[in-house]
Every structure is written in structure tokens, then in C-alpha cells.
Amino acid sequence: MIGHNSEEYEEMAEVYRHSYCLWSFMIDQRYQKRGYGRDALKLLLDYIRTFPDGEESLWSTSWEPGNDVAAKL
């Protein structure tokens, strides 16, 4: 799931008010460690670079502490 200008709260940094955000990215456990996630993420970034909802200079995501794979993203 991706969003664009879809979150806003008072303490939010201005730069994040104008960005694409990766909300959720899941690969079923049965299909992990096969490169599908890496390939899908590349396709997603290619899509975001087309600026489907307007041009921005930033994309962001978050992760749960302890998820080392997501932290490296």
C-alpha cells in the first residue's frame, strides 16, 4: 500500500507533508527469500517515479523495531 499526502499531524515535518509513503509491504512467508520482495519493491519505486499523483522529491516508510530487513530498506 502506498499513499501520497495521506498523513498529517501537528508535529509532522513539512517535508513529509509532500511525499509518497509506503504504508505496508508484505510477502507471504511461503514466498520469502526468493527475491519477490526485492523485485516488487523495484517495480513500486519505478511506479512512484512516474509521479502518478503529482511530483514529489521524497518517499518514506516506517518499520517495527526488530525488523532488521525493513530497517535496511
Average pLDDT value?
85
Percent in helix:
10-25%
Q: How does the helix and strand content classify structurally? A: alpha+beta
Q: Overall 3D geometry? A: globular
Largest sheet: 3 strands, mixed
The tally of domains stands at 1
Percent of sequence in beta strands: 5-15%
Read across the widest sheet, the strand sequence of neighbours is: 1-2-3
Calculate the terminal CA-CA distance, rounded to whole Å.
16 Å
Topology pattern, helix = H, strand = E:
EEHEH
Write down the Rg. Answer: 14 Å
List segments where confidence is low: pLDDT < 50 over at least 5 consecutive residues. none
Number of helices: 2
Number of E strands: 3
Give a structural overview:
The chain has 73 residues and is α+β, with helices and mostly antiparallel strands. The chain has one domain (2-72). The chain is built from two helices and three strands. It has helices spanning 36-48, 68-72; strands at residues 2-4, 20-22, 59-61. Helix 1 (36-48) links the parallel strand 2 (20-22) and strand 3 (59-61). The model has no long low-confidence stretch (mean pLDDT 85).
Topology of this structure?
Elements: E1 2-4, E2 20-22, H1 36-48, E3 59-61, H2 68-72
Parallel strand pairs: 2-3
Antiparallel strand pairs: 1-2
How would you summarize what this structure contains?
The chain is an alpha+beta fold. It is 25% helix and 12% strand. It is built from 2 helices and 3 strands, in the order ββαβα.
